[in-house]
Specification:
The protein is built from 8 helices and no strands. The protein has one domain. The protein has about 250 residues and is an all-alpha fold. Helix 1 runs antiparallel to helix 2 and helix 2 packs antiparallel against helix 8. It starts with a helix and ends with a helix.
Length: about 250
């Protein structure tokens, strides 16, 4: 194009046609500018297409993780409610109140008293986005804010689990000192216990005697209290997950 432009310029100069030459030159400049703008726009479109594809992939992966998290946490909440109900039954037999008819019946409840339902979510993909500074790939500001709120809520749940664990550990210590884990495990449904054939205790001991101790009653009540706080943290987590899933669904459909 440059050689042609030079020939045309020379011809116009030779013919003493400066006005036509200027028009031609300006036209050439405009065409070059338009070409550059088109190239830039195409490049922008390509980058936008790549970013949209990456965002959709991120949204789908996050949706899968948080669907799993919701299902898992909802199940744990239900199990914790059952634990509380069982623990209340234990309080109906403490002190001077009537005792369970059999030790086996009490041991079934005793196992649930020392049970802690822990939540292990899928946070890997979200953590990768946050740690790599790639969370900004998600355009929806509200969704980004909700995702950023997840780890603090998860840490709150784990903190409540620790409180429950501390309380149940006190019950476990009482069983170790004044009861029989072998007797308690005879009523356990845990896989670890079921996969091992434990012998009967060599001591003449009945775990129902724990019901006569004020310390046991207090530890049971405190475990209920801590489990109830844990449930509240579960509800908070489920509410946030539901909000995240709703926003993810909206962005995926767009």
């Amino acid at each position: 194009m440059i050689p042609i432009f030079r020939k045309t310029r020379k011809k116009m100069a030779d013919n003493n046609k400066p006005v036509k030459y200027m028009r031609y030159a300006i036209g050439e400049i405009i065409l070059v500018v338009i070409g550059i703008l088109i190239a830039l726009q195409i490049n922008t479109w390509n980058q936008q297409r790549i970013q949209n594809k990456e965002e959709q992939s991120a949204l789908i992966n996050l949706k899968q993780d948080f669907e799993y998290n919701y299902k898992t946490l909802d199940s744990i909440l239900a199990e914790t409610k059952i634990n509380i109900e069982t623990q209340f039954l234990i309080l109906n037999h403490t002190g001077n109140k009537p005792k369970p008819k059999t030790e086996f019946e009490f041991n079934t409840s005793l196992n649930l008293l020392t049970d802690v339902n822990e939540f292990f979510p899928r946070n890997g993909y979200l953590d990768d986005l946050v740690n790599s500074g790639s969370l900004g790939i998600i355009k929806n500001q509200k969704l980004r804010n909700k995702l950023s709120s997840w780890n603090p809520v998860f840490e709150y749940i784990k903190a409540r689990e620790i409180r429950v664990q501390i309380s149940t550990d006190k019950v476990s210590i009482m069983i170790i000192k004044r009861g029989s884990w072998l007797n308690a495990d005879a009523a356990s449904t845990e896989e670890t216990v079921k996969n091992n054939v434990f012998p009967k205790s060599g001591f003449d001991i009945d775990n129902r005697n724990l019901l006569n101790e004020l310390e046991f009653e207090n530890n049971t009540e405190n475990t209920i209290y801590q489990n109830d706080n844990l449930i509240e943290s579960h509800k908070k987590g489920l509410k946030l997950i539901a909000q995240i899933l709703e926003l993810l669904e909206q962005e995926i459909k767009q």
